[in-house]
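Record pair follows.
FIRST:
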Amino acid sequence: MSVSRRGVVKGGAAGALSIALAGSLDTIFQTSASAAGKGEAYGYGPLVPDPKGVLDLPEGFSYKTLSAEGDVISGSVRVPGKHDGTATFTGSRKDTVRLVRNHEQTASGVKPVADARLVYDPAAFGGTTTLEVDREANLVKQEISLAGTATNCAGGVTPWGTWLTCEETEGFGAQTKSHGWVFEVDPTGKRTQPVPITGMGRFAHEAVAINPKTLEAYLTEDAGGPFGLFYRFRPRAHRGQYGAYLEGGRLEAMYSRDLPDLSLAQTPGEEFRVKWVKVPDPSAATTSIRKQFEDGKVTRSQKLEGAWWGRGKAYFVASYSSKEDGAAADHAGQVWTYDPKTDRIRLELIFKPGGRFDGPDNITVSPYGGGVILAEDGDGEQYLVGTTRKGEPFAFGRNAFNDSEFTGVTFSPDGRTLYANRQTPGLTFAITGPWNQVRA
C-alpha cells in the first residue's frame, strides 16, 4: 500500500510497520510537534522546539549559524546560494577549521565571483566557498574557492586533504565548456585549478568516497532514463597528492548478477557479490555513460546520492525508489556499504514508504555510537537522521524554518562540531553538544 510520508495508513497499521529497524508506531509517526512530550528509543532524546523557529535539536545541543546566502564576503562578492556537500579540514592554525562547501547553482542565483584563475566556465553559477572558523565555530574568514562550475552537489574528501566537488549535470543551455565533471579544491587555496578530472567520467555526479589505501574512488550517479550507476575509478597514480587523479585511470560500473536494481533488496543485512565492468567511453562524447550499457549488464538504482568512506568501507545512499517511475521495487531510502576486501555490497538500512523518515541524501560516518548521520531531502518536514551501530534511526535535528533539504553533514576533524547546511535559503549550521551520550 502506498501511503503519504507521515500520513495515517488506511485500513490498518501494516504499512507503518514496513519501515525497517525504526521501532514502535509512536516512534515512526512521531513528529517534532509531539517530540517534547515523548522520548526517543535511540539517539539523544526528543527534539526541543527552537524558540527562533530555525533548527530543533535534542536537549543539551546548540547551534550557531554562519555564512548565509547573500552575505558580503568583500566588496561586491557575496556568498552564493544552494549550499550543498561540505567537508572539513585542519585550518591555518591548530585551533581553526576550514570548510569547503559546494553550491548547487547552475545558471542563476548569487554568482560566485573569483579571480580568473579559479573560473572554469564564465556562464556557470556553481562553485565552492572555503570558510575558516575558530574552535568555537565562529567565522574567521571566507572566500570563493572555485567558480564557473555547475550544479555542485556533493563530493568527497581525498586522503591527502583536498575536496573533490562533483557536478550533477551533463550540461545546460548557456555553457561555454562541457559539464558533468569532478574538480579538485585545495582548502588552502594555493593549488586549486579549474581543471576537470576527466578520468572520473562525465555524468550527473553526486558524491565520491575514496579508499585511502588504494586511492580507488567510488562515485554515485543521480540520473534517469535509464537510472544511474555506482562507479569505481582506479587511478594510474600510486602516490596521493593534489592532481593525482588528473593522470587518468580506469572507470568501471558495478554489476551484481543477483541484483539488477538496488531497490530489489528490502531486508537489512542482505549481501551481494559484485564485479566491475569497464566503461567504454568515460568522456560520454556521444552517449551518456549509463546508456552505454544494456539493462542486465550493470546494476542500476534510482536516485543514488551521498557517499562517504568510513570503517574500511564505502557508504553510499539511494534516496528513494518508485515502481511508478520504472524501478523494480519501492522504498523511501537505502544505505549501502561496499567492502573492497570481499567485493560485496551490504544493505545496512532501508526506509519503507509511509514511515517517519524518507529521502536520505548526504551522509557522513559518525565518530559516536558507530552509526551515520543522514541529511534528508524528502517530503514534508526535513530531518537530520542519526543511526546507531545496530542501524536504528533517530531524529537528531529538524528544519523548523521551512521544508528545504539538509545537506553537507560533516564533523570537524576533532569530532566536537557537526556542520550541516540548509540548502534554501543557504545557511550553514555548527552544532555542538553531548555527543558521547548517544543511546546506542
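SECOND:
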Amino acid sequence: MPGAERRIAVVVGPGRSGTSTMAGALAQCGYHVPRAIEGDATNPLGFFEPQWVVDLHTRLLRKAGVRTLDGDPAVLEAMERVTSADGVRTRLRTWLGRQLARHERIVVKDPRLVWFTRLWREVAHDLGEDPGFVVMLRHPSEVSSSRAEFYDSQQVSAVAGWINTALITEQLTQGSPRAFVRYPDLTAEWRPQIARVRDELGLALDPEPTADPHPIDDFIDPSLRRREAGWRDLPVPALLADLGDRTYDALGSLADGTAGPDLEELLTVIRSDYQRAHDDALAIASAHIKRRVRDARRAGRTAAADLTTGTGTETATETATGVIG
C-alpha cells in the first residue's frame, strides 16, 4: 500500500480528558482501532485503546517506575532509557507495520502515550509515515475531579501530573503535525473541531464532517460532560491551581488559534515555575520521605526474620505492606 494512502492518528492526553471521545470520533470517520479494549461503567462508549499498545506501555512504565500521571519533570529521562532498550523499537515497529498492512488509516490512543511520543514518532518514521497528534485539553480541575470519582485518584498529585504531562506533550509534539482540541468544544459542537483536526493533520475522513446525518451525531453525547472548570471546594494548593490555569490557558491558545510569538517564552516560564514548585515540595517532604523509607526497611527486615522463624508471618507481612503502601 503506497505510503501516501496511509495515515496514523495518535490521540494524546491524560485519562478523563476526552481522548476516548476524540479517538471514537475518528473511528466513526474511517480510522481503525486495532483490537480495542471494550468500554465499562467508567467509559460506557468505549475506550478506543488498542489492547496491545496498553499492555506494552504498562510494562514499560512499570519497568521505569513511572506513573501514568507522573508529576516529576525528570522521569522523561528514565523513560528514554527504557524505550531505547534492545527489542522495544523492533516490537513496536513489527506491530505497527502489520496494522498498516491491514488498514490504511489507524488511530492509536492510550493515556500513557505521552511518555512514548518520541518512540512512536521515530518508529512511524522508520515505516515511512509521519504521524499526526491530536492533543486533548480539559481543565485540570475537571480531570482531577473525574479521576478522583472513577479512579480513586488523589487530586493534588493528579493536578501536578496533569501540568507536567501537558507541558511535556507540547514539547514532544513540536515539529509534528498536531492539533490541540478543548474537550468542551468537542462535545458542544463537534463538526468544526473534527474539521480542524482533519485540516491541521492532513487526514482523509470518511464520511466528512459535513455529512448530515453523521455517525458522530449519535456517538458524542454532550451530557457526558458533567463537570465545570473551577477550583472551588477542591483540596488543591493555590500555587498548583495557578500553575494549572496558566498551563491550560497557554495551551488553549493553540486550540483557539490565538497563540502569539511569545508562547514559547511563556511556556518556558511556566515550566521553570513548575520545576521550582516540584523541587520545593520535595525539599519540604524530604524528612518525611526518609523516615518512611527507613520504617519500610525495618518492617521488611522484621517480616523476613519472622518468615525465617515461621512465627507471626501474617502480622509481619501486613505491617510491612502498610508501611510501604
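COMMENT: Confidence is low (pLDDT under 50) at residues 312-325.
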